[in-house]
Design a protein that fits this description.
By secondary structure, the chain is an all-alpha fold. It has 2 helices and no strands.
């Protein structure tokens, strides 16, 4: 981290990745895969 202040781009990227990972996590949950627990480590 450069500083404690979050840059707009950083926030957008975090939000983007969070959305992607949440989506994949939900998809894995429905198919009953164990990859859900792995996904949450990246958040």
């Amino acid at each position: 981290m450069r500083n404690s202040q979050l840059q707009p781009l950083d926030y957008a990227m975090l939000l983007y990745f969070n959305t992607i990972l949440t989506f994949h996590g939900r998809k894995a949950e429905k198919s009953g895969k164990a990859s859900v627990t792995q996904t949450h480590f990246f958040i």
